[in-house]
Design goal:
Number of strands: 16
Largest sheet: 6 strands, antiparallel, barrel
Strand order of the largest sheet: 11-14-13-12-15-16
């Protein structure tokens, strides 16, 4: 229970269904006195909801694990010229792994969250599958691809078939104190406009961000910068360059600190290579399988043909290309609304020849 309306309604619906529910807030970052994630206000809101529902409530401290599993890789990736996705790692290692170990100590048989996604269970085939939420605007299945199938088998997503409007209506109906609480979409430990400052502060003097130059497609220097952690593939804003046409980041060299820019067309790749995959449908799919892929949470899913696919990684090729393929981001494969699996983008693949 994060203190927001989604997890509050998820808990309330489970209580109504007849589950014996225990409310838990995860303390992940900070000292709980400030704003944002893990603030005292959030914990108090979650406690008020639990009291309203008549369920026990606990706060569990995961700060050390969160720092090691999420924050440190976040900083390391930015310093290496990649663009990380900490929410996927948090789900993979904290909310559906470390948390489950604690939940079992309380006698729990299931873990439930307020994520907008669906778990489909086929009793006949004894399989469990992850599906996108019915509300396509709120769908969060992209952030959940790395949850292993055996973990999905003990997971509940009560909001998977609801819209945000319906969730708030349930909260009002139940008299929950967070019914009108605004939602936060920031990364919990670093507000969106402060990623670069956070990385620079966290890295400190031991591994300062790599400064360098900004060049165009011909190698001509257009400017300088104070650190590659300020850039991501496909970025247009914040380059502080004067040019006749819009320029986008097309490549980042962590060794030299060189950031390459070019026209929008230069951000297009024929495909991508992803590593460390999680396969949710029994193993790698056959070469030539036609699926859809999302390479950013807010990007539309693009039709692709899967090339080599193994336990180590996969390739995906798009007939019309993939824009802004960004190392460090997640690449998630869908068969209609079913999540087939996904991995971490290693590199873009250029067209043959």
């Amino acid at each position: 229970m994060s203190g927001g309306v989604d997890s509050a309604v998820a808990a309330a619906l489970l209580v109504e269904t007849g589950y014996d529910v225990i409310g838990v807030s995860m303390r992940l970052w900070g000292d709980a006195s400030g704003s944002g994630c893990c603030s005292l206000d959030d914990f108090l809101d979650a406690r008020r909801v639990a009291a309203r529902l008549g369920i026990p409530f606990y706060v569990m401290d995961f700060r050390d694990d969160f720092s090691r599993r999420v924050v440190e890789p976040f900083v390391t990736d930015y310093l290496a010229g990649r663009t990380p996705n900490p929410c996927v790692r948090c789900n993979q290692f904290l909310k559906f792994a470390s948390f489950w170990d604690r939940a079992r100590e309380l006698g729990a048989a299931w873990v439930a969250t307020g994520h907008y996604a669906r778990v489909m269970r086929d009793a006949e085939n004894a399989t469990v599958q992850l599906w996108a939420a019915q509300d396509t605007v709120k769908d969060q299945s992209y952030f959940l691809f790395a949850i292993e199938p055996d973990v999905l088998a003990r997971t509940l997503f009560p909001l998977g078939s609801l819209s945000k409007a319906a969730v708030r209506e349930h909260a009002r109906r139940l008299g929950l104190p967070v019914a009108e609480k605004p939602e936060s979409q920031e990364i919990c430990f670093a507000p969106k406009g402060e990623y670069a400052d956070f990385v620079a502060r966290y890295a400190g003097r031991t591994a300062p961000p790599k400064a360098g130059v900004i060049v165009d497609e011909t190698g001509q220097m257009l400017g300088t910068h104070g650190g590659i952690h300020q850039f991501t593939i496909g970025q247009r804003r914040g380059l502080r360059l004067s040019a006749r046409q819009p320029l986008y980041v097309t490549a980042i060299d962590p060794a030299s600190g060189t950031v390459r820019v070019g026209p929008r067309a230069a951000t297009l790749a024929a495909g991508l290579r992803a590593t460390r995959p999680t396969w949710l449908t029994g193993g790698p799919v056959p070469v030539g399988t036609r699926l859809r892929i999302k390479i950013r949470s807010r990007f539309a899913a693009t039709p692709v043909t899967v090339g080599e696919a193994t336990a180590a990684g996969f390739e995906a090729w798009a007939e019309d290309g993939l824009p802004a393929v960004t190392p460090g981001q997640a690449a998630v494969l869908y068969d209609d609304d079913r999540v087939v699996g996904g991995g971490w983008i290693e590199r873009a693949l250029p067209a043959a020849g």
